[in-house]
Amino acid sequence: MTCNLVVLASGRGSNLKAILNAIEEGKINANVKLVLSNKKNAGALEIAKNKGIKAKFFDPSFFETRRGYDIYISEIIKKENPDLVVLAGYMRILSDEFIDTFEGKLVNIHPSLIPAFQGIKAQKQALEYGAKITGATVHFVTKELDNGPIIIQGVVPILPDDTEESLSKRILEIEHRIYPQAIKWFCDKRLKIEGRKVIVEGAKYGSLPINPSLEDF
Asked: Where in the chain is the domain with CATH 3.40.50.170?
């Protein structure tokens, strides 16, 4: 059965592109029904349009509150009957109402090894802290920012001469592999959530730099 996805994005859409490539290659049995953005000129909207996918921009400034905006877009999203709502560089903090609406089928990718360096500019935070490793995390979204149950993590070493730009680029390379993998596992109904713990049934655990190990990417 095909997995219906709705993607929320604010930026250039590199993770969206990686997901769409995986679908086109037959690695994920899924269909992106809608790409929605809070930024009019988001590259993700252009990527969606070029693929013939519905792409919609909704201006948050038209709404008096974040809650009002989220309630509105949640109604738009629900019409697509999504199995999974994917945050792919969506740069807005979600309201509790939105999270409640899609609880258990709302995922995000964050450019650090959660719980380290949560919030914005995680790469800069890691550099300024003097960390020796960082990475990327795919997790379910909860009301606590960047702190939901973790599906998969990938480790990226920090080099002495790294800049925020160079580190971000290497983290993105990992993101483009682990996010499609996590979505595939979800669509294949292999994710089992037990409190804070997410188990991928049948996956291989214990290897680095990515745990659990990639199977398809």
From this structure: 1-102, 109-217
Residues in contact with 25: Cβ distance below 8 Å, sequence separation at least 6, in sequence order: none
Segment 102-128, tens digit of pLDDT: 999 999 999 999 999 999 999 999 999
Tokens of 159: 């080099």
Whole-number pLDDT of residue 71: 96
Report residue 22: phi and psi, to 5°: -65, -35
Q: Does domain 1-102 have CATH number 3.40.50.170?
A: yes
Active site residues: 110
How far, in Å, CA of 22 to CA of 186, rounded? 14
Which pTM value belongs to this model?
0.95
pLDDT in tens, 23-50: 999 999 999 999 999 999 999 999 999 9
User: What CATH number does the domain located at 109-217 have?
Assistant: 3.40.50.170
CA–CA separation, 153 and 12 (whole Å) = 22
The span from the CA of 110 to the CA of 51, in Å, is 25
pLDDT tens per residue, range 53-65 = 999 999 999 999 9
